Batch of 2 targets.
Target 1
Amino acid sequence: MTTKLFGQAVQRVEDDRLLRGNGQYVDDLMPGALHAAILRSPHAHARILGIDVDAVLDVDGVVAVYTHEDLDGAMAEPLPLLIPHPTLTHGRTQYALARDEINYVGEAIAMVVAVDRYVAEDAVGRIHVDYEVLPPVVGIENARDGELLVHDDVPGNRAARMEQEVGDAEAAIAAAPHRLSLDLEVERSACMPMEGRGTVARWDTDSHRMQVWTSTQTSSGVRAAVAAKLGLDLGQVDVITPDVGGGFGVKIVHPWPEELLVPMAARALGRPVKFIEDRREHFISSAHERGQVQHVDVGFDDDGRLLGLSVQFWHDNGAYTPYGLIVPIITSTQLLGPYKPANYKVVFDSLYTNTVIVTPYRGAGRPQGVYAMERTMDAIAAYLGKDRTVVRAANFIQPDEFPYDQGLLFQDGRPLIYDSGDFPASLEKLKALVGWDDFERIRDEARAEGRTVGIGLACYVEGTGVGPYEGGHVHIETSGKVKVSTGLTSQGQGHQTAFAQIVADELGVPFEDIEVVTGDTRRSPYSVGTFASRAAVMSGSAIALAARKTREKVLRIAADALETTPEDLEIVNGVVQVKGAPASRIELGTIAVLSNPLRYAFDEASKAATQFAVGDPTKPPVADDDEPGLEGKDFYSPLRSTFANGMHAVVVETDPDTAEITILRYAVVHDCGNLINPLIVEGQIHGGVAQGVGGALYERMAYNEHGQLENASFMDFLMPYVSEVPKHIEIDHIETPSPLNPLGLKGAGEAGVIPSAAVFASAIEDAEGFSITSMPISPSELFALRLHHEQKLQEGPHA
Amino acid sequence: MSTHAPTQTDPATGEELHDVRLHVNGIVHQVRLPARRLLSDALRHDLGLTGTHVGCEHGVCGACTVLLDGQPVRACLMFAVSAAGQELTTVEGLAQPDGRLGHVQQAFKECHGLQCGFCTPGFLTTITAGLRDNPDPTEDEARDMIGGNLCRCTGYQNIVKAVCRAAELGRLEPDQEDQS
């Protein structure tokens, strides 16, 4: 019998190629292409009075230069607002090349196409732009003041105000025995994949087809955008996503200006054109996330049980809103985590600033929501003098309460209903894993040695596997090899491996015989994309369904050939055999031959197939309800999102002199339903925790008052190296399968990063004994907080 | 030699070109390049060795790390003309002579030491040099070895594991040392 692969730590099939340097990332393709370079705004806010490109035309090697004046038709219109929302009353998007006003440093103004990137950049440096510099709006407070405007026609810089309420939060808070208020802040960070954005396009003059290879999280989305903006039929455009060097959200925005400009130039010039973003460009012209200011009012009882929760927050959406309100909507709903406040009200303003756009970054609004909720839980525990885990446990949704309806609308417009989970069991596991109950002893021992340590925890629930659909296609070739396609992309999550594991089990074929293709619109034209921890849930389910359809056909044809019934057959190691009589057998490849009544004997398999009689000579070779070939295709479309969950705990040590923060232990309990491949899931957790450490302790976007990003390089924007991450991450899984999909899956891609700001704030607060309300926190900030706290103590309680 | 006089002008760009002999993975390539062509670009675009990746172009991320006479260097911080005549090893040169994965590559595969794979070539070259100097590193020494390379996907735990596993493979099969 074939060993079941679902749930096994199978080594990745992707790796051999990538380890040999044979990966194919966008910049590895089309070596002879022309190169594009973009002139980007040096000002955060300015009017363009004139652009002089004359000096460019003298540069040898320059092929073309484009400004907004050179764009026509739909290309001259603003870029799409991808996800409109009724409360997004003042949505704004930029032009592919700026028309008259620019709203952030880095906004695209002109594009040069030349024989290589060096020459293209030389030429960009010769373009002269006449600006009328305008005062910029930087930071949430300035945006909220509304004194200066980003867009003249958007009063108060408010793109949207959205409100949801369950019960009567204000009345419940007013009537509660205890009340607290918190003011919290989180700064901007960014995805920073090691590979920046990149696009190469070729216009095939013979077949009138546009072929685009782009480092995206959505091939089908880019395809639709290119077709719409360049006036092509969808059927004329192919978008292929090759190897992608990381995404984390920033590559879901579509189209980026360059994803339109490059195909446009390729068609106009009749030559392939390539754009490869450099690191500075990535900082100033892609997307950031996380920046929020929050105010929480909470009422609770003597046990710390929530009676009413009211949250208001201000979300910095940057200069435009191409991705709508997804990030703040997620914050406002996922804030509730594993808890059930009886009454909840949330209001947010999404505000324009003259800074880079804000779009989902791994976790997508959840880290901020979890931060607000978990800071509140810690504050309640501190106020009541209770253990922080006890207060959380008092508020948990209980295992017998699933499915649990939070009474809100989620980001997909569907009810926020949790499908499964076991929060009390997760908390017990986490406490055991991190040694929670033993920590007071460790703290005392550390104190005796003059050391300061603290422990923190944070819980989250994460809506994953968001719809509307994904598809799977499974094709068994006459060689017995199985070719699988799904439309969503892969940017390092091991999809080829995980999906092949699913197919191997469903079809009973050897893992090595399965090849999975992702993100190619030629193979899978209908698809959504890789984001929101949806790949395994959506494509995994779709592929399983497609494989089941294929299996049905396999068994039908085999039953006919072996003169038995499908129920009497099983597939073992690529061979269909009669249960209990394995000598009666037929190879899958042979069935593939039988499925196609084109009876030329191309190969040995075809010759073998001619031994079996197929069909009734009185009927057509392909029946009315059948089709030739051994293929199965299906789509999976869920009723609503599934909800993964988990809890993190960290032990930190803070240096009494330098305030340096050191991670001593890090523990994760994680529930993503059934695990397809624990190796890959744990890898996702490791990576998420590292990004979370970055967001909590190091990363911030240092905009000055002029809207200049002062740390737009890896020398100045501090991402964790190996020296900054926990040496070991202790992980325990709990598997509460989702009832919503055929494999019981929940997403796992983002979980690692979601509770980080909250868990570090909790631990640092515990170590220091004063509240932490603003993240990330650097040693110098912690040092300043200590001084402030000491000063307050000296001044006494009434100062 | 890195001081060749310009021999020709590029007809497309008017740039002066230099004849440069690059020794890469045991093969000698004769190329004609502008003096300002980065080594990373020359490897990738002139020689087609696209395994060396460019992540930041300012020497911080380490994705473009290659071995220059056995020492790890950032190919994005060096002009191709200045690498003339020296022995370069890129990720394409790390497999064993019989075509099997080299020890470091094999260890990365076993330990799930890569996700998107973009930073991986720089880690592989760096570790190859590191294990040559210290074939039996402690876990802390393994961390030091990769302390200059950025990875955004893996969280590094599995890369540290891979360094230790590669050292173990090297001890198990010392005769099949990686080509470097």
Note: Chain B has five helices and six strands.
Target 2
Amino acid sequence: MKKLLTNDEFNSVLLNLSKEYDIYAPVTRPFKGTFSDTDLVKYEKITKLEEINLKDKSYYSAKEILLPIRQTIFYFNENEFKKPEGRTKKALVLLRSCDLHAVERVDNIYLNNKFSDEYYADAKKMVKFAVIGCPGKGWESCFCASMGTNTTENYNLGLTFKDGEVYSDVKDEELKEFFINAEDKEFAMEFVTENVEKVTVPENIELEDIINDEIWRDYDRCIKCGRCNFVCPTCTCFTTQDIFNRDNSKTGERRRVWASCHVDGFTSMAGGHEFRQKSGDRMRFKVMHKISDYKKRFGTHMCIGCGRCDDACPEYISYINCINKLSKKLGDNNE
Amino acid sequence: MSNIYMPERGEILSIVQESSIEWLFKVKTSIKPEPGQFIQLSIPMVGEAPISVADCNHEEGWIEFLIRKVGKVTDAIFNLQPGDSIFLRGAYGNCFPIDKYLGKRVVVVAGGSGTAPVRPLIKKLLKDEKTELELIFGFKDQESILFKKEIEEWRRKTPMILTVDKGCGIDGECVGLVTEYIPHLKMYEGFENLEVVIVGPPMMMKYSALEFLKLGIPEEKIWVSFERNMSCAVGKCGHCKIDETYVCLEGPIFNYVKAKKLLD
């Protein structure tokens, strides 16, 4: 069902929707950026169009709606464990095509990697996705076209914002009732077809061929802050923690918090032994996961080409350059 | 759908000191692991730790864990007494492919606390009359020797080399690393019927495997057990991943053909 709405009409749709759905979209938080006088664009609940930042790429992805930064697995007291209720209100998430592909990547790990994670599965059931287009060639560090994630058909709602109007492609039956009164209008969803950055991903890499390569030593300058992992929409690692209440040490909760393969302690075992101590080796581990390991397991590359890792790195380490260098190197070797 | 993160209560039946630093905890539980698998042991308010199964009895409903006091969780476990509750989740990971071993000649090389996960395997293999078993156990020093009584019992039933890395040695025992004794094993004529299990510290496993390869034992006859920082044990948290392999899902037991490619 394709509809054309004015911005005002769309706002009243959002208002009606927000009675049933928490609507999440990229918004600007002034002066909350990494550097002084910079803004932060992140996902938050919205109720009207004017709150949405359609112009910029969000620094963080929509990942935390399905996979919170901190998530309680259960509460405990002396006698019992109790699972928290989880999401009770449905959610509608406005995101870009690449980020919707990222959700499919996360699904594989949380639903299809032998065991199904019921916290993620429960949250997923409550969430619908609205794809929004990107301007022009995307942003500086985007390479979705190279990763094949620039287009998608797999959305509940497609939105194109143009000249004070909203072109809506409503696929989801439950969402249709909110748009029913709007004017019918045939249109095609617009997606990015080309980016400024072009990335060649080397195929069929064997770990043993590249593990001792000099290329990784360039990345020993990484300061292991983990920002690249935290902004990545496909990074899914976590660490389990137990905490107890200060005023009643017999009650507390077990929770999981986002973890990063770049940050110290990720591979630490009891007794202090740690694998991959050098930053460059951690970079290798991450890069290989994104462009090789995951594909061996699930058939698609994990990386969706959003380029947020490049945007976030305080050391200006470019993951894009790394893949291209690796590709060139492996290509050279194959010749 | 069951919640994969929810542990169940177990009761500590007994705690026995095995070496100067390791204790054996026997826990009453309904969980029925296979040799080689591991359990997530947890204490609410402290956390979880993956511990391999040092023995189990499905009929009587108990599992034994060999635990060294080396971290937050194990520190807390050491404060427990028989009768106290402990929480368990599992069993996780694959197990030793025992069907492949039965009726063959099996060499088990184990070092230090690596003797714990092979203990239920050895017990099973000893029960099978058609399986020939040979053991090499290596420990750091005399005080570190684990399962002393059982080692004596096993020695009576099957050829065995017990070695300590250093010190004055023990009467009738060897001194040195397990790798030095691998060429002295008895069962080397014909490899088609031989299977080799190596469990211990990473370095020990690596050099032991190389020693067997030098003797001409094919890679596919060698089995090792990996240890990693496993936080979730169900393939989600990513801590134990090496290449496309999740040690908690596809391991901890790996054939050497696969294990040699798991580089970190």
Note: The longest helix of chain A spans residues 279-298.
